[in-house]
Specification:
The protein is mainly alpha-helical. The protein has 6 helices and 2 strands; from the N terminus they run ββαααααα. The protein has one domain.
């Protein structure tokens, strides 16, 4: 297990400062299994506030990335974490953390965390920020961003 960033070529549910569970590409966890979801949920709930802080996202942005999560639910998770985030939210979180990891491989320093809030002229973003694009486009947009970054770093 590693701490800050996972090795290249992994899909990760990672807490940006503590060890995390990981699955090699091609070994996506079985999210239909309640036990697997429960284990991944615990790691994801710990990672999300750190990701929000590193990317300097508002609560509305974070909730939008999580699939229109109500802000009240976001705040309640700090006191009463959910036992199971479900397949959709775990998929979103895994993609976001994979994007975080890819950015830290591609961009040294502060740019890795600032990138998601910078307007981008790549056709994937059409002049919008990556966060806005992913909020509007959901999982398909997150997959496109992840594929773009993986392609840039010589991944998949």
């Amino acid at each position: 297990m590693t701490t800050e960033l996972e090795e290249l070529g992994t899909v990760t549910l990672l807490d940006v400062r503590t060890p995390a569970a990981r699955a090699e590409i091609g070994e996506w966890p079985d999210l239909s299994d309640a036990t697997t979801r429960a284990v991944l949920t615990a790691d994801a709930v710990k990672a999300l506030p750190r990701l929000q802080s590193r990317w300097k996202l508002t609560v509305d942005q974070m909730c939008g990335l999580l699939g229109a999560l109500p802000a009240s639910t976001w705040y309640s998770w700090r006191k009463n974490p959910p036992a199971d985030l479900g397949e959709d939210r775990l998929t979103r979180i895994s993609l976001l953390l994979g994007i975080y990891t890819a950015l830290h491989v591609l961009h040294p320093g502060e740019l890795a965390d600032e990138w998601v809030l910078l307007p981008n002229n790549n056709p994937v973003f059409n002049g919008h920020t990556p966060v806005d694009t992913m909020m509007r486009g959901g999982i398909p947009a997150m997959l496109a961003v992840r594929a773009l970054l993986d392609g840039r770093r010589g991944g998949l």
